[in-house]
UniProtKB/TrEMBL annotation:
Gene3D superfamilies recorded: Transthyretin/hydroxyisourate hydrolase domain
EC number in record: 3.5.2.17
Organism, as annotated: Streptomyces chryseus
Name of the protein in its database record: 5-hydroxyisourate hydrolase
PROSITE patterns: TRANSTHYRETIN_1 (PS00768)
Reactions accelerated catalytically: 5-hydroxyisourate + H2O = 5-hydroxy-2-oxo-4-ureido-2,5-dihydro-1H-imidazole-5-carboxylate + H(+)
Role of this protein: Catalyzes the hydrolysis of 5-hydroxyisourate (HIU) to 2-oxo-4-hydroxy-4-carboxy-5-ureidoimidazoline (OHCU).
The keyword Hydrolase belongs to this UniProt entry's keyword annotation: yes
Coiled-coil regions listed: none
Length: 130
């Protein structure tokens, strides 16, 4: 939960190739306080059956930038989603053109930032949700 001095972050993933939440995707959270500051690993989680990470670590006071790293390759290997798309070309043995997705964004104290990832084997999109 955010306070006046901190921001908070949440995310979820929808696998748009099947129209379902992406379960079991590892997500790590890093943060920094200022554009020139070092990134600090805060921890991680994995998406649940609804594609949501409900237990991401809290952001430290003074956080200005956040990075969410999604380990997408393992998800596509385990689900074999790329093979299920008969019209899609095979890119690699792993079935994932993007083996990982890193999203970096700015935050301000006192606000909540929900950043959904819309994912498929050959592309992705993100936005600031609510």
């Amino acid at each position: 939960m955010s306070t006046a001095t901190t921001a908070s972050v949440s995310t979820h993933i929808l696998d748009t190739s099947i129209g379902r939440p992406a379960e079991g995707v590892a997500v790590s959270l890093t943060a920094r306080s200022g554009g020139d500051a070092e990134w600090v690993a805060l921890g991680g989680s994995a998406t649940d059956a609804d594609g949501r990470c409900k237990d991401l670590p809290a952001l430290p006071e003074g956080t200005t930038h956040v990075r969410l790293d999604f380990e997408t390759e393992a998800y596509f290997v385990s689900k074999k989603q790329a093979e299920a798309q008969q019209d899609a070309p095979r890119v690699r043995d792993s079935g994932a053109f993007f083996p990982e997705v890193a999203i970096t964004f700015a935050v301000v104290p006192g606000e909540h930032f929900h950043v959904p990832l819309l994912l498929n084997p050959f592309g992705y999109s993100v936005y600031r949700g609510s």
